[in-house]
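User: Fold this one for me? It's DNA polymerase III subunit delta.
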Amino acid sequence: MSVWDDVVGQDAVVTTLKGAVLASRHASGEAGARAMTHAWLITGPPGSGRSVAARAFAAALQCTDPEEPGCGRCHDCTTVLAGTHADVTLVGTEKVIFSIDEIRPLVSQAQRAPARGRWRVMLMEDADRMVERTSNVLLKAIEEPPPRTVWLLCAPSPEDVLTTIRSRSRGAHLRVPDPHDVADLLVRRDGLDPDVALTAARAAQSHVGLARRLARDPDARERRRRLLAVPAGIRGVGDAVLAAAELIDTAGADAKAATEERDATEKAALLRSLGAEAGTRLPPALRGQVRQLEEEQKRRATRAQRDVLDRAMVDLLSLYRDVLVVQLGAAVDLVNTDLEHEVRRLAADSTPERTVRRMDSVGVARERLEANVAPLLAVEAMMVALRPQAS
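Assistant: Here's what I get for DNA polymerase III subunit delta.
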């Protein structure tokens, strides 16, 4: 099984990355190092598989198979994919942005020669989550890289990173894969029912990770169905306010469920390392470390809640997209095939112009969340705009 098998529907990008690996192998010594671009910017919409493609590329760079780089069987391939290879550093953040203190150690680490592999690979997910000052620290490492270091930066689009970083990186842009390709992957790798897999792939708009969760978790499918039933039930401002509050509460509960256990484990581990017991009063000298951890966890929870809300808004956009498709009589498949009856009812009760205005209101709410507007205010304004009389 090749490392490229999970890079779904990205034939052009896979060809480019394979070609780069082969070019660096065919040249030996310093010429081989020069043949490899020292920084890559791998972009694509959410769910297109940016980090999957980057990991596959990192594995192929380290692969020891002389005939098939990225064989998926050798020790280097398997450890890269597992995230345990000594010369491949995986960098991500669960906070809203990277801090400058998180980037500086990476710059130092990138200067070291690889310990045992062909390359030292610095794979950075969410490269768009850097402010300009932090990006400038990374820029220095990319401008003057060691001969055997490769940076793989992942972001939604080239415009999401600093212009100077973009100009010094080679681009590889992923597209949204076909839902049938995603469904085939779920059937092949997870043994899921083909019909369930295809419905989930369409509902997830080809986001592989989300499609897998929807296909495997009936509760997730039911939560999504309840969310998409909300617009039909909004008749006045009161309904809109209640719907907004419910969505915020659900997002908060989901975010808490996703982070609570990990938070408790991290705090218990820190207390053990400090020689303290849970529930006891800490000396002043130790409180700062616990407070710092709690602040980190709070920022992580904030991002988790925003991610849940943003995903809900994307689902709402998919609903109105389907409504608009029906209203215009477009010959394309619906995203929400399991909600076709509800889609057609909403289409009959509105006009294309109103549907577009509602989609705009959802888009504005997403922008407001990104700009750190209070989530409840942003969601309330969106829900009010979804009322029939608001159109």
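One thing worth pointing out: The longest strand covers residues 149-155.
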